[in-house]
Amino acid sequence: MLIELPRHTEIFGCVKIHELQKVLKFESNSFESPLLRGVSREEIDEILHKTVVIVPVKDEKLHLLDGVLRSIPQGCEIIVVSNSQRGENDVFRMEKEIVSNFHRVTKHPITMIHQKDPGLSVAFKEAGYEVILDNSGFVRNGKAEGMVVGLTLAKNMNKDYVCFVDADNYIPCSVNEYIKLYATGFILSKTPYSMVRLHWRYKPKVMEDRLYFKKWGRVSEITNRFLNLLISIHTGFETNIIKTGNAGEHGMSMKLAEIMAHSTGYSVEPYQLIYLLEEFWKGDSKFKEAVNLGIEVYQIETLNPHVHEDKGDEHIKEMLFGSLSTIYHSKLANDKIKNEILEELKKNEVIKKEKELKKNKILPPIINMNMKKFIEVLLSHSETLITYQ
Ligand code: GDP
Ligand code: CO
User: Fold this and answer.
1) What is the pTM of this model?
2) Among residues 164, 206, 230, 338, which is most buried (max CB within 10 A)?
């Protein structure tokens, strides 16, 4: 991988956020110059063998899930966390077939579980993490909850890196690029606490009879603008550093992932940045090793465009709502930014009144869970866990 080095980095306490970096060439030899870093296949390969890829999936087209799995690079562990329909129209059963066929043909190790597995309920309870359960005792619906299920399983695989790829991707090989970019970010990082977030230049749409390469995401633009404003009101300097507020596709070192908090609803990704700023810039974090060694956030623009399932205007509104309400409720927000968020949401017909801006539930870091207990209980109670080695 040949990638630009960040020319500019902003520092918030022990958190460094690097400027957006572009990929210049997909393959390279290993070298470093003041402006560029070439990362060799061998270097990437070494990281991939220490990586777990988590694929959250809920009722996506089976073809898409299949393509995503097939383009995950050799060497990574895979965990599929499904919250798909069961019962009469058993989507989960069909996903299981995709997964077992994938393993039979490729021999790639893969683990799969259903989010509503009763064994997960007991395991989370016994491990002291009931916050993830709903009133009926099952793991709640939601992508964040699925991510935490995946993280907890990954933690038990003793790997150093964990990353997420969505299952609704129409360009399978872009997933191969994403995972190699996460690895590249981890190689650049000078600390064991690092995060890599992806940015896309284009989001192609079919317009009449041709493909139109529309610039990436309106929701992302709005989220980024408010996240940058949130920073500016504290530093007194206008900034544009944040380009990946809604980076659904991202990776973290396991050390960072286990001290990360997760916001539910459609606000996981912007909240990660807010959490880092609240906890490690304006807060007095109890995670002293992270404070001492520092945290780095990389933002990388991919070569591939991002083409995923179009889930309609309602989904866009929910994303805007989730993203902005998490900024609104941040400890870092002042009245000015709160008012601007309200106006933005009203303008986009997302809400009518302030009281609709409910606070999203936050899932705390998994570091305090009793992992030994979790895995012991899960293995004896799970009804859906499948591990192919
Ligand atoms: P967007 O791409 O950020 O607009 O959001 P998507 O709706 O595409 O969701 C991202 C990924 O999370 C997709 O692979 C979804 O299938 C998956 N997903 C959505 N909701 C859930 C859930 O409740 N549980 C799990 N495990 N995955 C989910
Ligand atoms: Co999607």
Assistant:
1) 0.96
2) 164
Spans of the chain, pLDDT less than 50: none
The Å distance, Cα 129 to ligand 1 centre, comes to 22
Ligand 1 site-directed mutation target among 54, 143, 149, most atoms within 8 Å of CB: 143
CB-based contact 158:138 (threshold 8 Å): no
Is there a contact between 1 and 184 (Cβ–Cβ < 8 Å)?
A: yes
Which of 54, 57, 139, 323 for mutating ligand 1's site (highest number of atoms within 8 Å of CB)? 57
295-353 pLDDT, tens digit per residue, is 999 999 999 988 888 888 888 888 899 999 999 999 999 999 999 999 999 888 888 77
Cross-strand pairs, 195: 252, 297
Query: Rounded to an integer, what distance in angstroms lies between the CA atom of residue 370 and that of residue 297?
Result: 28
Q: Whose CA is closest to 276, among 227, 237, 312?
A: 227
Instruction: Taking the CA atoms of 139, 145, 150 and 151 in sequence, report the sign of the dihedral they define.
Output: negative
Alpha carbon distance 319, 350 (integer Å):
10
57 lines ligand 1 (CB under 6 A): yes
CA distances from 161 to 54, 257, 275 (A): 11, 8, 20
**Distance between CA atoms of 231 and 241, rounded to whole angstroms?**
9
- Tokens 């309602």 appear where? 314
SS3 (DSSP) at 71 = coil
Cβ–ligand 1 distance for 81 under 6 Å, the answer yes
Distance from C-alpha of 270 to C-alpha of 360, rounded to nearest angstrom:
12
Q: Whose CA is nearest to atom 15 of ligand 1?
A: 57
For 323, the enclosing helix (H) or strand (E) is: helix 312-328
> 22 φ, ψ to 5°?
-100, 145
In this structure, the number of other CB atoms found within 10 A of the CB of residue 154 comes to 24
